[in-house]
Amino acid sequence: MTVKKATSAGIAALLNRTLRVKKIKDSSLNGLQVRSRRGGQIQRVGFAVDACVSTFEKASGLDVDLLVVHHGIKWRPRKDRELERRRTEYLKKHNMALYAAHLPLDLHEEYGNNMQLCRLLNVRDPRKFGRYHGVRIGYAGTFSRATGLDEVAEKLKERLRTSCRVHRFGKDRVRSIGIVSGGGGSMLKEACESRLDCFLVGEIDLAVYNAAREYGMNLIVAGHYATETVGVKALMPLVRDAFGVDTVFVADTKDL
Fold first, then answer.
1. CB 63 within 8 A of CB 94
2. Is the pTM of the predicted complex or chain greater than 0.70?
3. From the centroid of its chain, how far is CA 189?
4. Nearest-CA neighbor of 68 among 37, 93, 100, 28?
5. Closest Cα to residue 187, out of 241, 144, 135?
6. Strand-strand pairing, 246-249 and 44-50
7. What is the per-residue DSSP string for 4-29?
8. Fewest CB within a 10 Å sphere: which of 30, 55, 95, 187?
9. Distance of CA 227 to the CA centre of its chain
10. Residue 220: strand pairing partners
11. In b/e form, how buried is each residue of 72-111, taking b as 16+ CB within 10 angstroms?
């Protein structure tokens, strides 16, 4: 493989093509959100879940030139102009570029959060699942054998270094599962209509909890942050191999 010159624009172009960023409607303004003042030359790329100052501080300490995140700082409509301004100023002051990919990274069939969770759990025959604004962003599939909920949760705990809340509203042993990382609780009804045995999600609200209990759907809630670390990590070898840069995961662990 020919190694390309590492610039923020070049890395962004690769990620845009790979993740089909321009073809996927999203409230996040995906792509290169902040440019570096160094002219774009990149030596080290950091990968993280959230574009917030605590993450930026860790990335700066690791000499990151470009930070690739799942949750960026630019949204439509704008969420908080003051926070966006502060975060942009911090990045520019520390000569750090920022790239974000939200839904394109959730749903990608190779690098996406939900496919990576399928692989982590050895889910067989994953199929598209979890409709969000007209696009299915998750996956559903089966285990090779009936599996206890605790076994599934323990594997997530070990691999993601997270704590799981297991809500036993259905059968004790499960064969099928639906997976939507992050705040995917709104897809609960689809999980029930698909007659799945279990629904894995990052976080839920009280309404989803009550609905799952009444529908008899098992829930495994593994943390919004933890379930969305896997996609950015999957992108690391892609960027490293294409551009010959150092890559590092910037952990900013949250119990959420």
1. no
2. yes
3. 22
4. 100
5. 135
6. parallel
7. PP-BHHHHHHHHHHHHTGGGS--SB-
8. 95
9. 6
10. 166, 200
11. bbbbeeeeeeeebeebbebbeeeebbbbbbbbbbbbbeeb
Q: What is the DSSP string of 170-235?
A: S-SEEEEEEEE-SS-GGGHHHHHHTT-SEEEES---HHHHHHHHHHT-EEEE--HHHHTHHHHHHH
What's 53's DSSP letter? H
Nearest in space to 59 (alpha carbons), one of 9, 97, 5, 28 = 97
- pLDDT tens sequence across 84-134: 999 999 999 999 999 999 999 999 999 999 999 999 999 999 999 999 988
pLDDT in tens, 59-92: 999 999 999 999 999 999 988 999 999 999 999 9
CA distance 26 to 44: 28
How far is Cα 221 from Cα 206, in angstroms, rounded to an integer? Answer: 13
DSSP symbol at 2: P
DSSP 149: H
* 210 C-beta neighbours (distance < 10 Å), count: 11
Which residues pair with residue 68 across a beta bridge? 47, 99
Cα–Cα distances in angstroms (integers) from residue 226 to residues 9, 13, 56, in the given order: 28, 27, 18
Between the CA atoms of 177, 194, 141 and 171, what dihedral angle is there, to the nearest 10 degrees? Answer: 40
CA distance 110 to 112: 6
| Phi, psi angles (nearest 5°) of residue 94 | -100, 15
Scan for tokens 């969305």, then name that residue. 228
